[in-house]
């Protein structure tokens, strides 16, 4: 009896060890590390809770075990080299490949077994999301404070208006008294005799003071001419112009928060004359996988649902069926409102400034800034302003001829560039002899003020 009990206890211990081992297959994975690895390697094609390009991966370990009786070894093989797994004749691997339109999954031979265990642990037990900064709450608090301040300001304005009305009433009463006094004086004989000697018409007044009148008219004509000239000079100058676009696009989120390089979307700015408006397929490169906004930054007055709704507008324009993960072929052009537009008689080449003048423009711009916060790190910002801080893009500068000329007069040519150093060597030597050793070559010295450079 004692022997039976001893063996019974050993059996229980063995079973408990086996169960604990089976339950801890994924305790060896770190879900937090897995989350980082998942974001780096998987989010372009997968999400935990829905199908994107590939299937939803939430609970994939349990699902695979229940539906296909496959363990994690199969997942390791699939993730590291799914192509080799399919080539080996694995039935389920080929079924998955056929099911998802023969879309070839990337191979990840660089991931270690531990990395894959971390990822699988994340798909099985994702850690709770850290509470994002409640920008909406902050915005609400800001709105409450703004409402309180507005109420105080309104109360102050009401008091000022009451005081002003009292003052006006007092002034009107005082004027009434003065008018009565003037009426009495008008009726006196002394004033009647004085009035007979005064000028009683404008023509007589002008005849007496004709030179003064002509001078005033000439001065008014001069002011009017200056006003018309000044108005003509500012035609086509739209600094601060920030039109509403058909799809809300925040450069602060894309270029600021997510650090997306300007030239990823505006690729022709570096090698072409014009910096084109990106086509919808450029948007879909990212938003085919990013179907809803989950970022921490939220502009005051908006919420995540608003940004997600704008992404759906991109899908509608591109003809993308999110449920089927396929294009329908029905597209709708997006009618963007152009912000920066040079006149037809002006030649401006983006490549010339972005490539040849990049370092020179950045250095010259930063040298003029007294506040370090105003300095720039990308050449685009010299003309377009700090786009990465703008929710709604606006024209940051005047873009007048004088503005361009001033830049050409103050921007030094980059002589560290091997081509410029050799090409302008003789000019540099000549300027040193003429103006001294410390002289610098600015853009105007190499033809930057020639009319034919910009007008043709």
Automatic annotation (TrEMBL):
One term of GO molecular function: electron transfer activity
Signal sequence residues: 1-27
CDD domains, per the entry: Cytochrom_C3
Pfam families: Cytochrom_C
Gene3D superfamilies, sorted: Cytochrome c-like domain (1.10.760.10), Cytochrome C3 (3.90.10.10)
InterPro entries documented for this protein: Cyt_c-like_dom, Cyt_c-like_dom_sf, Multihaem_cyt_sf
Keywords: Heme, Iron, Membrane, Metal-binding, Signal, Transmembrane, Transmembrane helix
Domain Cytochrome c: 29-127
Keyword Membrane: yes
Keyword Oxidoreductase recorded: no
Residues spanning the membrane: 160-177, 211-234
PANTHER family: CYTOCHROME C7-LIKE DOMAIN-CONTAINING PROTEIN (PTHR39425:SF1), LIPOPROTEIN CYTOCHROME C (PTHR39425)
Protein name according to UniProt: Cytochrome c
